[in-house]
Design a protein that fits this description.
The complex is a heterodimer of chains A (408) and B (514). By secondary structure, chain A is an all-alpha fold. Chain A has a single domain, classed as Orthogonal Bundle (ABC transporter involved in vitamin B12 uptake, BtuC), CATH 1.10.3470. Helices cover 74% and strands 2% of the residues of chain A. A two-stranded parallel sheet of chain A has the order 1-3. In chain A, helix 3 packs antiparallel against helix 14 and helix 11 crosses helix 12. The radius of gyration of chain A is 22 Å and the shape is globular. Chain B is an alpha/beta fold and 514 residues long. In chain B, strands 6-9-10-3-11-12 form a 6-stranded mixed β-sheet, with helices on both faces. Classes of the chains: A mainly alpha (408), B alpha/beta (514).
Chain lengths: 408, 514
């Protein structure tokens, strides 16, 4: 076995992953220029996270559905609304303590997801129809519960959905970044130091983990990338994370919802790549018959994929209510399509078995940056829709064409 | 020169990194049946794809002369218009359409886009009669067997007025009787209608009977063309030139060391999953001793696959009854997971659709049914996985660039080895092998027989299902004959002959009618 794989070989193997990352960076640079740097301002980065966190949470659940066989869940937007309405019922109407209400809300999401999972996996109703029905049912239930009205949410929801981590470490560094953009720094004269520290620690742990994993591979004599490539890769990652948190520190610091999202992404990335359950999901999507004949309980896997989607929709619903400071009958409209688009832009196959959690997140970020960049530029929202549609089409066309090329 | 309907001259076709065809020459005489043989990957299908325009003119080097005219096909339509029809191994029929509709698919009887149903059905009926397809033209293709589907494909080719009919492995999925009928039809078409045929097949005994000439390809090159009546065209001679070496024995020798009964199934009855009244497996009782290879012979549709799959954790069927006894203890396998834990393995007959995840790499496929062995608290140990996959890849001699190669890009024989590796990794005591050598070339078959022998030597119980009689006779210690869901005969290797097996089947079939 070739121990030091060439960089080009590595690049070819992970072409899709790198291509999407390059696309993301390119889009950031383009909008950075066309908006005259406005997109890159700390406050805009901060807003970007809030505006897209719930879509990214949904995409993390949706990618599992898609992996399990190209299944999509059209109901998630309505489940977001349903959970939001039930939370209003629990925390406001019934006066249950918010912390318990949050868990009850998650439970409602699980119920909704389990309902779809049951229909799809055990009754064998085609997923498109089961979730389309769910989309109508849960939207209707939301309106019934809320009576079509918007209800203000308790403090806890706002903390989850629109607050940031408090600055716990009393070290004051002048806000050089906002000064760099020529922004009046009277509002935030100092950087949010806790955010910087957390970013640094997280980056350090990540790099250490990658190094240990590389040493492990070396020990077993497996093929690894050359040290130079490894150093550049980890170095870039280390820098990127730190730059990101330093940038956030110039605004309000680390949003709570970002901590939640990061946690979920880590958990699900681990689940899909390193666990037996994850392997079962990929196998089911890759070839259902082969998976069943290999002893995988295919129905159970399918059921849990949808039940999990329900929980993720609940998390998104709770975060969204906090973001709006209210439980709204209009919550979550169209979210399902954004989440699905994020997965496909991120390289998931519509037939199942191919895709990654990280890819879906990057896909969601591309959509989010397109939205924000074009909004800052003042582009007509109808034009924005056209552009987003073309980007989705382009990403999938890239997949299809590169696959055809491989097959020839 | 003028005798040749087709000459392919110095055809070279290169794929990135591989020369699939290297200066291949093929001369097919008008009105003859010309066989094309070679191991998997020898370039037979590639050559036919060049001929039929799947690979357009310009993507290969060399010339194709059809009726002495140079052809430059841009696509399949072009070659069809010239009179070349190809029937691929994977049939191109639409399951929810009738036989008549399928026959005229892409070639509809129509005026201005409106289909003339009378003409369609009349013509279809006539054609079906001519080729001996005795079914209603209104039958849906999904409801007819593979043999009849094959005939439908031939009818489809005939309405296109083809002069040269190419058949890629037409009998691979057929039982002996259907195969015979099909070959008879080909000879018939050849004699009465003057249709020239090129037939690709691994079943050499069929080819030696019907073909006038046999061209052997090896590693993308023409090795030789044998002419009937001039050269000796014994199977052994063909095999020798296919593999480029003498195969002294097609079945590796082994001295069986047979122990106690390790696996037994009693009074096993299974009903069709969609039809509660239809018994697919009827009161079957079999046993396998440790270290013994037991064959189940029978025609396609005899219920062998259904039997094996229903035993394997009820993976098939409804209302299953009967007992399974393993190592003297009664077992209840409620699902496939149970069966695997109980020490069973089932190698499917359909490796592409039910055995492998084609888009995944070798490593992922090998470990799929034994994930608990490479994980702790459900977390995978990727280092262990690589070690295991590497070990099994080497053990079974899977020819690939590494364990990360996609199984889609492997040859049939190597794909099958990955399938077997997967089941060896799950470490079973009882192996149910369903057509383990289907669609695999001679060399790889030998390797797979060797693996099976080794498993038996380790004291495992092997149940070997095959439709190929020579194979069953060559490798099994004991043979059950199955027909219409029942066991209709049992014989030891030394007393078994093809005639005896066929007699069992035929007698049981008539016995039932009375």
């Amino acid at each position: 076995m070739n121990r030091n794989e060439s960089i080009t070989g590595l690049f070819k193997q992970n072409m899709r992953q790198y291509a999407i990352l390059i696309a993301l960076i390119t889009i950031v640079i383009i909008f950075g220029i066309t908006t005259g740097g406005t997109l890159l301002r700390p406050d805009n980065l901060y807003n970007l996270i809030f505006q897209n966190s719930y879509i990214l949470i949904l995409a993390t659940g949706m990618i599992l559905c898609i992996l399990s066989g190209g299944n999509i869940d059209l109901s998630v937007g309505s489940v977001v609304a349903f959970v939001s309405a039930s939370s209003a019922l629990f925390s406001v109407t019934l006066g249950i303590p918010p912390l318990i209400a949050v868990f009850l809300g998650l439970g409602m999401g699980l119920l909704a997801g389990a309902w779809h999972g049951f229909l799809i996996a055990y009754v064998r109703i085609p997923m498109f129809i089961a979730t389309l029905a769910g989309m109508l049912i849960f939207r209707g239930l939301n309106n019934l519960i809320l009576n079509g009205e918007t209800i203000g949410s308790p403090e806890l929801y706002i903390t989850i959905g629109s607050d940031s981590l408090p600055d716990l470490i009393p070290v004051q560094i002048p806000n050089i970044i906002n000064a760099l953009f020529g922004i009046n720094i009277e509002q935030r004269p100092f950087l949010h130091f806790t955010t910087i520290v957390i970013g640094f620690l997280a980056a350090a742990v990540l790099v250490l983990g990658m190094f240990i994993s590389r040493q492990n591979k070396k020990k077993y004599n497996f093929s690894i990338e050359s040290f130079g490539f490894f150093a550049v890769k980890t170095g870039a990652l280390f820098l990127a994370i730190n730059l990101f948190t330093v940038w956030l520190s110039a605004s309000n610091g680390l949003p709570n919802v970002l901590i939640l999202l990061t946690g979920l992404v880590l958990i699900y990335a681990f689940l899909t790549t390193k666990t037996v359950a994850g392997r079962h999901i990929y196998a089911l999507g890759g070839n259902e018959k082969a998976a069943a004949l290999s002893g995988i309980k295919t129905r159970k896997v399918l059921f849990w994929v949808y039940a999990n989607m329900g929980i993720m929709a609940a998390v998104a619903g709770i975060a969204y209510a906090g973001r709006l400071n209210a439980f709204s009958p209009l919550a979550g409209e169209g979210f399902e399509l954004d989440a699905i688009a994020a997965c496909f832009i991120g390289g998931a196959s519509a037939k199942g078995g191919v895709g990654t959690v990280v890819g879906a997140i990057i896909g969601g970020l591309i959509m989010g940056i397109l939205n924000q960049g074009m909004s800052i530029m003042g582009i007509n929202i109808f034009v924005q829709a056209v552009v987003k549609g073309l980007v989705l089409l382009g990403a999938v066309a890239f997949d299809v064409l590169s696959k055809n090329k491989q097959g020839a | 020169m003028s005798k040749n309907i087709l000459s392919m001259k110095n055809i070279t076709k290169t794929f990135p990194g591989v020369k699939a065809l290297d200066n291949v020459n093929l001369e097919v005489e008008k009105g003859q049946i010309h066989a094309l043989v070679g191991e998997n990957g020898a370039g037979k299908s590639t050559l036919m794809n060049v001929l039929s325009g799947v690979y357009p003119f310009g993507s290969y080097e060399g010339d194709i002369l059809f009726n002495n005219k140079i052809c430059k096909f841009k696509n399949i339509k072009d070659s069809e218009h010239t009179g070349i029809a190809i029937i691929h191994q994977e049939l191109a029929l639409s399951p929810f359409m009738t036989i008549a509709e399928n026959i005229f698919l892409g070639n509809e009887r129509q005026t201005f886009g409106i289909i003339n149903w009378h003409e369609t059905n009349d013509k279809a009926k006539q054609l079906m009669e001519q080729i001996g397809l005795n079914l209603s033209h209104n039958t849906l293709v999904k409801d007819i067997g593979v043999g009849h589907q094959q005939l439908t494909e031939i009818a489809k080719a005939l309405v296109k007025d083809c002069q040269l009919l190419i058949l890629d492995e037409p009998t691979a999925a057929l039982n002996d009787e259907d195969s015979k009928n099909l070959l008879k039809l080909l000879v018939d078409l050849n004699k009465n209608r003057g249709i020239t045929c090129i037939i690709i097949s691994h079943k050499l005994h069929e080819l030696t009977d019907i073909s006038h000439k046999i061209t052997v390809l090896r590693d993308g090159m023409t090795v030789q063309t044998l002419v009937k009546g001039k050269d000796s065209i014994s199977e052994d001679a063909i095999i020798k030139s296919m593999v480029g070496r003498d195969i002294v024995d097609r079945f590796p020798k082994r001295t069986p060391k047979i122990g106690n009964v390790g696996f037994e199934v009693r009074n096993w009855t299974v009903y069709h999953p969609l039809d509660d009244d239809r018994k697919v497996v009827d009161n079957v009782s079999i046993n396998v001793r440790k270290g013994e290879i037991v064959g189940i012979s029978g025609l396609m549709g005899a219920g062998r696959t259904e039997f094996a799959m229903s035993v394997f954790g009820h993976a098939y069927g409804k209302k299953i009854s009967g007992t399974i006894i393993k190592d003297g203890k009664e077992q209840a396998f409620h699902d496939v997971g149970d069966a695997i834990h109980g020490g069973l393995a089932y190698l499917t007959e359909d490796r592409k659709n039910a055995g492998l995840i084609m888009m995944n790499d070798i490593k992922t496929n090998i470990t799929l049914s034994g994930l608990e062995k490479i994980s702790k608290w459900n977390v995978l140990d990727s280092s262990k996985e690589i070690i295991v996959a590497t070990e099994y890849r080497e053990k079974l001699n899977v020819k690939s660039s590494g364990i990360l190669q996609k199984v889609d890009n492997l040859s049939g024989g190597n794909q099958q080895k990955v399938c077997i590796a997967k089941w060896l990794f799950s470490d079973p005591d009882v192996l149910l092998l369903d057509e383990p050598t289907r669609g695999i070339d001679v060399g790889a078959k030998y390797e797979i027989y060797t693996i099976i022998n080794k498993l038996a030597e380790e004291g495992k119980c092997v149940l070997f299902i095959s439709s190929e009689l020579p194979e069953i006779l060559g490798i099994c210690d004991r043979i059950y004959v199955m027909n219409e869901g029942r066991i209709v005969g049992e014989m030891m290797q030394d007393e078994a002959t093809p005639e005896k097996i066929m007699t069992c089947i035929i007698q049981s079939a008539t016995g039932r009618k009375n």
